[in-house]
Amino acid sequence: MDRQAERGRQAEQTEQAEQSGQDGQAEQAGQDGQVERKPARERAERRTAREQVEQRAMRRAVELAAERLGLTGANPTVGCVVLDDRLRVVGEGSHRHDGEPHAEVVALAAAGTRARGGTAVVTLEPCAHTGRTGPCTEALRAAGVARVVYAVADPTPRAGGGAAVLAAAGIATEGGLLAAEATRANRYWLTNATRLRPWVTWKFGATLDGRIAAADGSSRWITSAAARADAHLLRARHGAVLVGAGTVRTDDPHLGVRHGVAGPAPVRVVVAADPSRLPATARVFDGSARTLLAVPERFARAAAPPGAELLPIGPPDSPPDDPPAGSDGGQVDPRALLSALLGLGIRSVLVEGGPRTAARLLAADCVDEAVGHLAPALLGAGPALLGDLGIATIGGALRWEFRAAEPVGPDLRVSVVPVPDLPVPDLPVPDLPGEGAPGEGALVGAGGWTA
Ligand SMILES: NC(=O)c1ccc[n+]([C@@H]2O[C@H](COP(=O)([O-])OP(=O)(O)OC[C@H]3O[C@@H](n4cnc5c(N)ncnc54)[C@H](OP(=O)(O)O)[C@@H]3O)[C@@H](O)[C@H]2O)c1
């Protein structure tokens, strides 16, 4: 039975359970011992009330998951809320990091015995496999939970299938509640699992007329201190910050997390067509965080500047006698680069320019979201925020959609995503390359649970 059909069957079971009064409330014995059916309207009202409570609980679970975005290592961001048998919140929790308990286990521990007969509302289908911790399906069963509502199906063959395991244990199980919101809250891991590359955010600061520097090259500071602090928050939530060699030469950025923002230092990635054109004294090579210098494969034996590691990137999947244009010395293939970064355990990348680097990633369909800080300033001249995408006519424009727009200090922060956005996973994806057995800590291919 495929996952869709399975879900239909589970929903049907839930419906039947309600109608036959398994929840202890739909039917009541009258004084004469006869079973009286409560009016259909009353049952429908109770179901609507339950749906509303579960939706509120799922919103909270999504919030809990989103708080951990970028901080869970190899594992997904998951939130869970446990309701007791009278639909009161009795526990909540999120997954902190791989190796630590899963969200369901955290929420069940908070609920204790009050979980018995209750409902677990969780943003990702509970896992059915044993990694460094036991299967969540078993934890839910052992806690006596009667119903599980999850948002998004687990697309990984290794951990997926939990819904069917729960249903087989007699637990009413439904999927799909607030799936789009939960997908977004877990976007890094889902991108790793389904696209086999890190999630990529392109961040830029520009004037209202789309300039990133003045005609004389001066660019500090186009945007406000508030926008820069927001940029540091973004850095702290990504595994790597990536820039092109041009930005290193022009702006000499440090790419660390400062401005009072706490969080792990992201790996710094510099993309260069020729590493010898980079100044060895650049601040990204100061040794304060890991720095990777992504170069075409022909520079594999070049000397890396002190404080940096060379990351030679070969052509993606073509035979050696048929390399794609540019792989011989011109360009670093963006897809191959991202795949190499994922292989190093980097789950998300913040691209901080410049325009040519961003254009290459966009042209390769490797950007998942753009976050722009727009300053209410006009320059009229100077470099544009994006390099040539090879689009000659208006019909070829990349049409994205606004996800959010909000003031940040005196600037406007816009968040824009491609259409279509990251799809909500449904059916399982094929086995991921390079994954070891659970607990072996394999990072390559990413997406599977390691806890
Ligand atoms: N306002 C902002 O948000 C912002 C952010 C960043 C930068 N900037 C501005 O951007 C300007 C610099 O622009 P830019 O276009 O020169 O910068 P860039 O995109 O940072 O650098 C372009 C260079 O990066 C290397 N590169 C990028 N992708 C590559 C690939 N796939 N394969 C091989 N090499 C690759 C090449 O290095 P080689 O040099 O080795 O050929 C290329 O010439 C500066 O004025 C800076 O202030 C503004």
UniProtKB/TrEMBL annotation:
Coiled coil: none annotated. Residues 1-55, 307-332 are annotated as: Disordered. Residues 52-174 form the CMP/dCMP-type deaminase domain. PROSITE patterns: CYT_DCMP_DEAMINASES_1 (PS00903), CYT_DCMP_DEAMINASES_2 (PS51747). It catalyses: 5-amino-6-(5-phospho-D-ribitylamino)uracil + NADP(+) = 5-amino-6-(5-phospho-D-ribosylamino)uracil + NADPH + H(+); 2,5-diamino-6-hydroxy-4-(5-phosphoribosylamino)-pyrimidine + H2O + H(+) = 5-amino-6-(5-phospho-D-ribosylamino)uracil + NH4(+). The keyword Zinc applies. It comes from the Bacteria. Gene3D superfamilies: Cytidine Deaminase, domain 2 (3.40.140.10), Dihydrofolate Reductase, subunit A (3.40.430.10). Residues 313-323 have a biased composition (Pro residues). Transmembrane segments: none annotated. Keywords: Metal-binding, Multifunctional enzyme, NADP, Oxidoreductase, Riboflavin biosynthesis, Zinc. InterPro entries: APOBEC/CMP_deaminase_Zn-bd, CMP_dCMP_dom, Cytidine_deaminase-like, DHFR-like_dom_sf, Eubact_RibD, RibDG_C, Riboflavin_Biosynth_HTPR. One of its GO terms (molecular function) is zinc ion binding. One of its GO terms (biological process) is riboflavin biosynthetic process. Pathway: Cofactor biosynthesis; riboflavin biosynthesis; 5-amino-6-(D-ribitylamino)uracil from GTP: step 2/4; Cofactor biosynthesis; riboflavin biosynthesis; 5-amino-6-(D-ribitylamino)uracil from GTP: step 3/4. PANTHER family: 2,5-DIAMINO-6-RIBOSYLAMINO-4(3H)-PYRIMIDINONE 5'-PHOSPHATE REDUCTASE, DIHYDROFOLATE REDUCTASE FAMILY PROTEIN (AFU_ORTHOLOGUE AFUA_8G06820). Converts 2,5-diamino-6-(ribosylamino)-4(3h)-pyrimidinone 5'-phosphate into 5-amino-6-(ribosylamino)-2,4(1h,3h)-pyrimidinedione 5'-phosphate. In the C-terminal section; belongs to the HTP reductase family. This is Riboflavin biosynthesis protein RibD. It comes from Kitasatospora cineracea.
